[in-house]
Automatic annotation (TrEMBL), chains A, B:
Cross-referenced Pfam families: NucS_C (PF01939), NucS_N (PF21003)
Keywords: Cytoplasm, DNA-binding, Endonuclease, Hydrolase, Nuclease
Protein name: Endonuclease NucS
Principal place of residence: cytoplasm
Residue ranges constituting the Endonuclease NucS N-terminal PH-like domain according to the UniProt record: 27-127
Protein role: Cleaves both 3' and 5' ssDNA extremities of branched DNA structures.
Family: Belongs to the NucS endonuclease family.
Lineage: superkingdom: Archaea
GO molecular function terms listed in the Swiss-Prot or TrEMBL record: endonuclease activity
Top EC group: hydrolase
Endonuclease NucS C-terminal domain boundaries: 133-248
Subcellular location per the Swiss-Prot or TrEMBL entry: Cytoplasm
EC code: 3.1.-.-
Length: 257, 257
DNA sequence: GATTGCATATCGTTG
DNA sequence: CAACGATGTGCAATC
């Protein structure tokens, strides 16, 4: 069946498969192929996948995905911007190649037999709205510093040390420096090490510096290391409020200056 | 069209969409729906996606993917093991829910109108064979230590320090300790910091300890920090040879003991 | 264009 | 089951 928005065909011949892929690429459509195929990849690594039935997705932006019937991650893929070519062999087999220039990577799919092939022109203007990132925590703390503790005053965000950027640098009510390390999910031992490294730049500070790990929760080993190092933990859930209106955010920003 | 391996339908009614999703779930098939839909997610974070045409994939292992017509990553998803339920509303709209228990996460898709719906029973026994990982580098170095430098002798792999595991610990021909940090791709500043941390445990060693970053290449800033810290860089590409025969590897292992 | 660091990261391995 | 580290991580923001 064919109309302007999509085309699909079941049990296509090799010729038909070739033609529909060509057409889909020309129209910059999203192409779906369910087929028995083999896959080779060469680039940052190298891989090979023996014959089996998988879903192939080619997107108009050059993204290329091969999905087996398990896992969230594609078994092979190419990123946006990759260039696709399709060839038909004498025996009717279809070869689809996707090439990326930098870094040089090549994905080759040999389609033995397609079960269904289709392409779609997707109308989709909306972007995903997300909340609950580390950045949302940061904004919350800058707007309401008392969440960390009474009298906490942020000085800067993204303060650079020789060991990377500190998320929030501030002072407590006694004027002691506080280094905050934010994590939007359960903090592990590596988060504590990160905080420990930031503090190295301040080890000569006379007033003493407090290191605080801010996260919804912390692993057992991480807490042990934290306490052994004289660091602190502050439990804080990342705010998950989706912004309904962008002007509100702007007003808030202006009024808070 | 219907047979044992797959079913597909174009411009299905709400009832038909519901029925095919039900059937696909029951048969533990891979379900594909191209439709206009809205998506909500709540769990580790929260997100909302307004109406638009996307590809929905439900895999028999519970993996759930929603793909827009751009990017490699799905715009929303649920991991393997999630449980799917489908409902039909009075107005013919379809609600698909995927729930994960731990952590608690819920994905809700409201299908306004499906353009095509299909399901497939995929025959696929092959696993992906990959080469070019950090582990391949490690094996290469343990088998042929001279690749690092003449006279290098590995002592242990995965040596534990207070700052994490060292990839390979060894000695040079003069008996000085060498700490190797392996990276399968271009090493950045964080790799140098990691190596720096490992060496802290050895800073009292009388003979002096050498820290060596082993990677195919290194960023400019990373090289600067490396040299400032008196560390070394050894260029090594991860071996990309796909193993043809597992016995060969075993033989090699036995003969090298 | 190169580099850095977050992510609903996902996924395998280990304790 | 929890936790830790690698990944062809992908991706956006920043330089």
């Amino acid at each position: 069946m064919t109309n302007r928005r999509f085309t699909s065909l079941e049990n296509p011949t090799g010729e038909q498969t070739y033609k529909i892929i060509e057409e889909g690429l020309r129209k910059r459509a999203m192409i779906l192929i369910f087929s028995c195929c083999r896959v080779c990849y060469y680039g940052r690594a190298r891989s090979r996948l023996g014959p089996g039935e998988r879903l192939i997705i080619i997107k108009p932006d050059g993204s290329f995905l091969i999905h087996q019937d398990r896992k969230v991650e594609p078994v092979n893929w190419q990123p946006p911007g990759s260039k696709v070519r399709v060839k038909i062999e004498d025996d009717g087999k279809i070869l689809v190649e996707s090439i990326r220039r930098k870094p040089a990577e090549k994905l080759t799919v040999e389609i033995e037999r397609a079960h269904t092939i289709s392409y779609y022109l997707a109308r989709d203007i909306h972007e995903l709205e997300v909340a609950g990132h580390e950045e949302d925590m940061r904004q919350l703390i800058l707007e309401s510093p008392d969440i960390i503790e009474k009298g906490f005053k942020p000085i800067t965000r993204e303060y650079q040390t020789s060991n990377g950027f500190i998320d929030i640098l501030g002072k407590d009510e006694n004027g002691s420096l506080m280094v905050l390390e934010l994590k939007s999910r359960r903090a592990g031992i590596s988060a504590v090490r990160q905080l420990k490294r930031y503090l190295e730049d301040f080890k000569d500070d006379k007033h003493g510096v407090r290191g605080v790990l801010v996260a919804p929760s912390i692993t057992h080993d991480a807490r042990e290391l934290l306490e052994a190092e004289g660091l602190e933990f502050k439990s804080l859930e990342p705010p998950q409020e989706l912004k309904k209106d962008h002007r509100m955010t702007l007003d808030k920003f202006i009024s808070s200056r």
